[in-house]
Amino acid sequence: MAHAVAHAIDSGEHLLVQAGTGTGKSLAYLVPAVAHAFEVGKPAVVATATLALQAQIVDRDMPRVADALAPVLGRRPTYALVKGRRNYVCLNKLEGGFPDDEEGLLSVGQVDASVGRLGQEVVRLREWASSTESGDRDELVPGVSERAWRQVSVSAHECLGGKCPLVAECFVERAREAAKDVDVIVTNHSFMAIDSFEGRQMLPEHDVLVVDEAHELVDRVTATITDELTGAMVMTAAKRAGRMSENTAALDEAGELLAQALEPLEEGRMLGVPDSVGLALARVRDTARTVQSDLKPPPGQEADGARQIARAAVDEIHENAERVLEERELDVVWLNRDPRRGPVLRVAPMSVAMLVRDKVFEERTVVLTSATLELGGTFDAVAGTIGLRGNGAPSWQGLDVGSPFDYPKQAIAYVAAHLPAPGRDGTGDDTLDEIEQLVRAAGGRTLGLFSSMRAAQNAAEVMRARFGDDIPVLCQGEDQITTLVRQFARDPRTCLFGTLTLWQGVDVPGSSCQLVLIDRIPFPRPDDPLASARSQAIARMGGNGFMAVSATHAALRLAQGAGRLVRRADDRGVVAFLDSRMMTARYAGFLQRSLPPFYPTTDKAMVLAALARLDAMAPPPVTVEEPALRSLTGARADADGTEHPRPVAAPPPAPASSRSAVTGGHAWTDEQDEELRDAAESGMQLEELVDHFELPEESISARLEQLGLTIATGALFD
């Protein structure tokens, strides 16, 4: 993979690489990326989908790469973590440079920290902000709610930029300044997309982009350019403008008119904007334009925090109303009802393929990698969604480098074929009983992946009632994901239940995760407006919309979810699918072929026995690295700001199993290594070892070379 990445960078030809867990793919792209950065004097950019992978690269992979390459390159390669503005504390907001949130949480926290959780969170945030070096939210453990975090952060549109009185001390500006001269910049898909699409130049000039977790790119890009509008948003913008405009009452009325127009509508896609909604949107657009003019600061004056907050809110509702009214050819408009916010009007592009082709692939060499890029043995499906197919598509190559794991021996894929197919009424009693039996057999150690937040919360509540204190059950939403995952990894008796984020962002090797539960096939919802619009468009062109959209979506999610189980060569366990359609449906074979090649079974008794044995034999959990203070570049640092070249936590202990050396998919045991040493001393031929171990010659040769052994054949060397 490293050679393929280096060739892509040299040739300018884009590369798609499928690389299974454990292949070391981050090292395979970081080394050539660093080499190129040294050669051309520009940074390479690495974009990931999850915070967990960003932390892994900055805390573990880049320090090792930097240490290894320093003697070769003459200096230690440098790197930085760059995030969106909302991830950092705003010092100007802390100092009162912006108006308080409409709920007045800051004043609550200042008056009496005991009045409730939100007040306590805000007080703790202010104390933390006075000591942090980076201002990065991820450094704060335990985390705080989104409502509390809004009190100390601003969006890019709300920021005063260079006109801010505290710009010289700003965490964001200092972090981005520090990132200008590094060799590798680590960021996320959304930040990279905004930088590419909006031309804000938040990232330094670069000609190499690596997109890790690339299976998520389309969804993250789509989310970045999805807009929404509610009556309450319009009325809030009017409140923000306040006395700075003479037209705020008219804007407030426009918000009420929009709320009234949306209220009677049913959820779902709009094939055209209803007249009542169109009139309300036109009123919002035109009134917002007038208020925009009023909010311009008087001649010779700069915008203060209150005016900037108001302008950002009014700009957003103006742009979103105008976009919906334009009814662009590829835009999909739909309405959904939020339990807290009421009817929400949303608009998103049906496809981002041409946008990604023009804005992401045009100016640089792009390497995309993931454990799940191939579906049905080809990259075509993924390539089509990102603009790499069709007329005018740029040149690219695809490569599957396989996996080092012996999946059939390491894991069982169990389908609970006796359960009824899932219905729309939530998780049935039979399925809850199945979950209880599996989790008890595993002794906890369970990651539960559910198709909806409601299903995860319901299962968590039921299991807590049944298990009591014997097996703790954590549920997504109760704290930051990173905090929950650390708790789960630290205590092998614990279970962690959740939805979409956990399907792809959890890396818990070792005995803490020996059972992965998947409650149902993760198809898009039947009323998902984007999925249905894409399916219909494909069907109109003569294709199979269900297989191209719904089944493909489910296959990617299943592969990612099942991939949470086996993270290294000595991991063992079960992935339990509680959806009998995995065996009975006409598309079952397609879904099964998208999974790692685990040992398949529907034998419940065998699975329960296997889980019980694994629980009884389980080694201690892998040491969990705790969060650390960070420097401006995102590297770990002491309280005094001194950077650590390596993570401060102790490395994980050696695995209890000796199956830690893997060649060609085979995990070697201590006993087999002894046999190889005896064979070398006795003068056995390589062909005899092939017959003895029933393994490929390449696998045996690779292990002999690792052990420094010579066998009587011209093919091997000391």
Q: How would you describe what is shown here?
A:
There is one protein chain. With 718 residues, the chain is α/β, with parallel strands linked by helices. The protein contains 29 helices and 20 strands. The model is unreliable at 102-115, 638-660 and 714-718 (pLDDT under 50). Helix 1 (2-11) packs parallel to helix 2 (25-40), helix 12 (248-262) packs antiparallel against helix 13 and helix 22 crosses helix 23.
Number of helices: 29
Distance between the termini: 25 Å
Strand segment tally: 20
> What structural class is derived from the secondary structure elements?
alpha/beta
Shape: globular
Largest sheet: 7 strands, parallel
**Biggest sheet, strands in spatial order?**
3-4-2-5-10-1-11
pLDDT under 50 segments (min length 5)?
A: 102-115, 638-660, 714-718
Average of per-residue pLDDT values: 85
- Range of helix content: 40-55%
Radius of gyration: 27 Å
Strand content: 5-15%
Oligomeric status of the shown chains?
Answer: single chain
GO molecular function: helicase activity
Cofactor: [4Fe-4S] cluster
Biased composition (Basic and acidic residues): 637-646
Family: Belongs to the helicase family. DinG subfamily.
Concise description?
Helices cover 45% and strands 12% of the residues. It has 718 residues and is an alpha/beta fold. Helix 13 packs antiparallel against helix 14.
Topology diagram in text:
Elements: H1 2-11, E1 14-18, H2 25-40, E2 44-48, H3 51-73, E3 79-81, H4 91-94, H5 105-111, H6 117-129, H7 146-149, H8 171-179, E4 184-188, H9 189-198, E5 208-211, H10 217-224, E6 227-229, H11 231-241, H12 248-262, E7 268-270, H13 275-294, H14 305-326, E8 331-338, E9 342-349, H15 353-359, E10 365-370, H16 380-385, E11 396-400, H17 407-410, E12 411-415, H18 429-442, E13 446-449, H19 453-467, E14 473-475, H20 481-490, E15 495-498, H21 500-505, E16 515-518, H22 529-540, H23 545-562, E17 573-577, H24 581-584, H25 588-593, E18 599-601, H26 604-617, E19 661-663, E20 666-668, H27 670-682, H28 686-693, H29 697-707
Parallel strand pairs: 1-10, 1-11, 2-4, 2-5, 3-4, 5-10, 12-17, 12-18, 13-15, 13-16, 14-15, 16-17
Antiparallel strand pairs: 6-9, 7-8, 8-9, 19-20
Helix pairs in contact: 1-2, 2-3, 5-6, 9-10, 11-12, 11-14, 12-13, 13-14, 18-26, 22-23
